[in-house]
Amino acid sequence: MKQTGYYRFPTIAGNRVVFICEDDLWSVDSSGGVPVRLTSNVGEVSRPHLSPDGKWIAFTGREEGNPEVYCMPADGGQEKCLTFLGSTTNVIGWTNDSKKIIFSTNSSQPFARMNKVYQVSVEGGIPELLPVGIAHNVSYSRKQGCVIGINTTDPARWKRYKGGTAGVIWVDEKGKGDFNKLTELKGNLGSPMWIGDRIYFISDFEGIGNLYSANPKGKDLKKHTNNKEYFVRNASTDGKNIVYHAGGEIYVFNPEENKSVKVEIEFRSPQIQRNRKFVSTYRFHEDYNIHPDGHSLAVISRGKAFVMPNWDGTVNQIGETDGVRYRLTQFLNKNEVITISDNGGKERVEIHGTDYDAKVKTFESMDIGRAIEMAISPLENKVAIANHRSELLLIDLDKKKMKTLDKSKYSRIEGLSWSPDGEWITYSAAETQNTLSVKICEIKTSKVTRLTDTRFKDISPSFDPDGKFIYFLSYREFNPVYDSMYFDLGFPRGMRPMLISLKADTNSPFAPIPKFSKEEEKVVEEKAKKVDDKEKDEKEEKKDDKKSSVKVEIDFEGIENRVLAFPVPEGRYQQIWGLKGKVLFSMAPIKGSLNQSMYSVEPETGVTLEYYDFEQQKSEVVATNISYFKVSQKSETLVYRSGNRLRSTSVLSIDKNKPADDKPSKRTGWIDLDRIKVSVIPALEWQQMYTEIWRLQKEHFWDPDMCGIDWDRVYKRYFALINKVSTRSEFSDLIWEMQGELGTSHAYEMGGDYRQGPVYRQGYLGADFSYDEKNDAFKVEHIVNGDSWNDKETSSLNRIGVNIKKGDVLLAVNNKKANMKNPPQQLLVNQANSELMLTFMGKKKNETKNVMVKALASETAARYREWVEANRKAVHEATNGRVGYIHVPNMGAEGYSEFHRYYFAEAERESIIIDVRYNGGGHVSPLLLEKLARKRIAYNVNRWGAPEPYPHESVLGSVIALTNEYAGSDGDIFSHCYKLMGLGKLVGKRTWGGVVGIWPRHKLVDGSVTTQPEFSYWFVDVGWGVENYGTDPDVEIEYRPQDWVNKKDPQLEKTIELIMSEMSAKAPKLPDFGDKPKLNLPD
Question: Closest by alpha carbon to 1012, among 668, 756, 692, 585?
Answer without folding.
Answer: 692
